[in-house]
Amino acid sequence: MDISKLRVGMQCTTADGSLVEVRDLLPDNVHLRVKYLDTMDNPDIDPGEERDLPYEELIAEFMGTHAEGLT
Fold it and tell me: What does pTM read for this prediction?
């Protein structure tokens, strides 16, 4: 995945189908801080919750009615 295209505020879909907003690019170059906007009813994650997520969990940039792949 080309992580150079990631930016704070970008909305992305994840491997589990959730919609997240990128909050911070972490200095370890492996993780980023995200805020979950839609968790696809995953009971382990609350909408609005922030977590560190590995870059490879991001699938695509969410662009409204379609998604643009990052790989």
Answer: 0.84
DSSP the chain: --GGG--TT-EEEETTS-EEEEEEE-TTSSEEEEEEEE-TT-TTS-TT-EEEEEGGGEEEEE-SSSEEE--
Return averaged pLDDT per consecutive 10 residues of the chain, 71 residues in all.
Answer: 83 93 93 95 92 94 67 49
CATH of the domain at 12: 2.30.30
Residue 37: alpha-carbon gap to chain centroid: 9
With respect to residue 22, please indicate whether it lies within any of the assigned structural domains.
yes
